[in-house]
């Protein structure tokens, strides 16, 4: 599991951008973030910490995005 917490304008803009997507499948890429792991009694995971210069992109126009969508559709059709 990956946990992401957003604050202020970043969170507000992210919610608006997600609502404006034209697809049900949403892939989010994060650049300029710091990843750290955590362990809790309920689950282990990764936390992404963002900064003022972090880049958050919804459905990025790149080959990796298309490959991920194909994988998701083939791995679990219920995800799409």
Automatic annotation (TrEMBL):
It comes from the Eukaryota. InterPro entries: NA-bd_OB-fold (IPR012340). Gene3D superfamilies: Nucleic acid-binding proteins (2.40.50.140). This is Replication protein A OB domain-containing protein. It comes from Daphnia galeata.
């Amino acid at each position: 599991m990956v946990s992401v917490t957003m604050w202020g304008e970043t969170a507000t803009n992210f919610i608006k951008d997600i609502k404006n997507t034209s697809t049900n499948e949403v892939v989010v890429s994060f650049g300029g973030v710091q990843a750290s792991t955590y362990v809790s009694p309920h689950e282990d995971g990764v936390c992404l910490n963002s900064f003022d210069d972090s880049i958050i992109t919804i459905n990025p126009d790149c080959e990796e995005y298309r490959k991920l969508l194909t994988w998701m559709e083939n791995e679990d059709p219920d995800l799409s």
